[in-house]
């Protein structure tokens, strides 16, 4: 039976793979990844296979392999693997026959289940593996193997299990081989330390076997195992349980972080749960997950069951990957599900994931924006290195103070065979206004005045100061411009006056002017503090002089806003065959980046993203013209692209097209293409799923600091229920094709919002005919 992703409306919380094929290991390793924000782990099989990626990561533990490599999240010594010998022969699904193979993730409680019947020679065994990362105890992981002998004779079983440090990040080894051994005679411990960042790890394992067995410890280089040998009688069922924990010297929930204290804490935790069985530990985690599901649940009545499953899939992964426990960390582009992008954070957070947390878990959102405040030193470092002032945020970020961590070299050029330089870390500068936009959105949605005064205003002024120093004066045209950049469309390098970059820089600068005026007029107590840092009078004068003269690309006679100075003069290419292929980057099987740079080909939404984020600047007719112009030229090779197109097309009344984009977007990870997620989950796309549903079809948006709600249901949806937080109030929305009902949870402050240009007040309940 070939490996196939399976979704069944009878299992409304389950994603499943039926059938096993070794070549498709990466798909379920990623899309069924487990995590709790502190740690994340790919769902690789317990037994080993060529081509697998046995990755486990702890958020924020960045290390660089050597001085010539950028920092990355290190792959932690593996604690899941089981080496099983059956009558002396190594168990593997690559030999014998396999029936009833099922691998599934229950999104509701994060339980991974793998089961099958394995027949080899005259042996038949029924396997069932269970595994979860605890959402209730952030350091804890647990697995259980149930083995049933279906053979009419006894079988000798040997299980080798422990901690294996013989892992790497694609060959880069990040750990020293620390002390390892048994604690109290039954707890395996390893104490690896990262090579450059000197983060101490404590990894502890405790085994529980339901029948007596001979036990033998085994030490290898960078590894420590226990070997269990026993006889499995005919029709006998045994269970083998493995409980594991990870602690580090940067954990913010520990006071004493000495090696001795860490070791004792880890052992004490496993001892304290010794009397709890697997189901009880799972129930703890399930209860914590349930609190997440109870906060603003989303219900979709659709002709297509997968629509409902998609939002559950997205929310599960967003919470499995977000480091809600520590403001010094952010969300990587692959979350904690793979080595792709080295665990680094991008603009993905502010533009695609932060909105979900702003509207549903503002406490988590506050940590994410505080991370950017803590990153000001790194942003100053980058600006200074480039000859600018203010805060220039890194394209790729790791530890807040590190500054830029984008690798310099990438894949080989298909034409020259030479390594391609990654220019994003040098000239993809819109990240700075993206961070500012995210800060402003957080403040607008939450009304968090304390954050604004203590941190937010400083970021907004510091980023504006960067743009003021970044602008270049064109004396012939008497305007300021921004040359030699990469916009959101990364297929266009070294362009001048990218519309998205110029417009967002202009917004950043003009908002900073308004902010300075507001602080001064209201005699804000933080004016003095900020004035001391920025000299606000002088900064305001500079921003006013330059912002009025910044070049903002205007529509052509045909109504098209140029993506940059040269885009509309480039040659055209029919992209039909590339759009129809599975996967991404098929274009680069025929062309290199330099050739693509000379054609009207867009990787992802650029001008259209600008029109979505700043919709007040452009009328509907202009948006329609630009949508119809740019979408056929967009490959959607970035997972960030489809959600933008889905939301914008819903705004424009193209609901069939919007729903088509929605379905393509949810299939990036959940679809049948079995190689799409090998490097890890597409974190921004998951945030995009929530945005498509709540901000697109549900119509929730912040426009010029005002809440607007204008739903647009696709024809396949009969009903949509969702909720969100706004200024501390909890709001529930019920959308049907002909009406919108809003219900506020309590009698707190009234909420004003816009709908089709009219202002409404919500005190308890409001119903609007659509």
TrEMBL record:
Cross-referenced InterPro entries: 6-hairpin_glycosidase_sf (IPR008928), 6hp_glycosidase-like_sf (IPR012341), Gal_mutarotase_sf_dom (IPR011013), GH65_N (IPR037018), Glyco_hydro_65_C (IPR005194), Glyco_hydro_65_M (IPR005195), Glyco_hydro_65_N (IPR005196), Malt_Pase/Glycosyl_Hdrlase (IPR017045)
Molecular function in Gene Ontology: hydrolase activity
Claim: Transport is one of the keywords in the record: no
UniProt keyword annotations, A-Z: Glycosyltransferase, Hydrolase, Transferase
Domain called Glycoside hydrolase family 65 N-terminal: residue spans: 17-249
One Pfam family here: Glyco_hydro_65m
Domain Glycoside hydrolase family 65 C-terminal: 701-762
Repeat keyword on record: no
Domain Glycoside hydrolase family 65 central catalytic span(s) in chain numbering: 312-691
Gene3D superfamilies: 1.50.10.10, Glycoside hydrolase, family 65, N-terminal domain, Maltose phosphorylase, domain 3
PANTHER family from the UniProt entry: GLYCOSYL HYDROLASE-RELATED, PROTEIN-GLUCOSYLGALACTOSYLHYDROXYLYSINE GLUCOSIDASE
Family: Belongs to the glycosyl hydrolase 65 family.
Protein name, per record: Glycoside hydrolase family 65 protein
Organism: Lactococcus nasutitermitis
